[in-house]
Amino acid sequence: MPSFSAFICLSLALAFACANGAILNPAAKLVGGHSSISDVSAPEVVAAGVAVARHFDSTSSSRLNVASFARVTSGTKQVVSGMKYEIEVELSPTACARDAPDDSCTSVGPPFCVVKASVWSQPWLKKNAVSILTEACK
Fold first, then answer.
1. 66 and 131 fall within a common domain
2. pLDDT for 6-28, tens place per residue?
3. Tens digits of residue pLDDT in 91-132
4. Distances, alpha carbon 130 to alpha carbons 54, 69, 125, in Å
């Protein structure tokens, strides 16, 4: 038979869940769940987009010129051990040759490629783990 203290603990847990909307509002945000990125121009989101562009360049050998980060169009974020971004990034062409990439390369045309990627950012370790999920390039 359950003790009185177990009953009190269960009652408090249920009351807490109701107060936070987890039971009464199934659309309430789940701690650690995905949430939409409201500001795609935020510095940390742009940094994730730049990391995607660099990773794309380092793993793609079919183009002669370096691709340049254009913008993040949409995405979600999730608090993990750091921040995990699932983002859609537009890349633009540059005039810089692939064998001599330069951080000062600027775009010379409209975006030619849309890349969906996952970026796991851990700033205290000074690293980003990037995975290209899909790409659609012209």
1. yes
2. 556 555 555 555 545 445 555 55
3. 998 888 777 656 677 788 888 889 999 999 888 888 888 988
4. 10, 14, 14
Sign of the CA dihedral running 106, 111, 115, 117? positive
Same domain, 5 and 54: no
Total domain count, the chain: 2
Could you tell me if 87 and 114 are in contact, meaning their C-beta atoms sit under 8 angstroms apart?
Answer: no
Supply the range of the domain harboring residue 20: 1-30
Q: How far apart are CA 7 and CA 128, in angstroms?
A: 46
Overall pTM > 0.85? no
Question: How many angstroms from the chain centroid is the CA of residue 33?
Answer: 13
The CATH number linked to 70 is 3.10.450.10
Check: CB of residue 92 under 8 Å from CB of residue 111. Answer: yes
Place of tokens 């269960």: 10
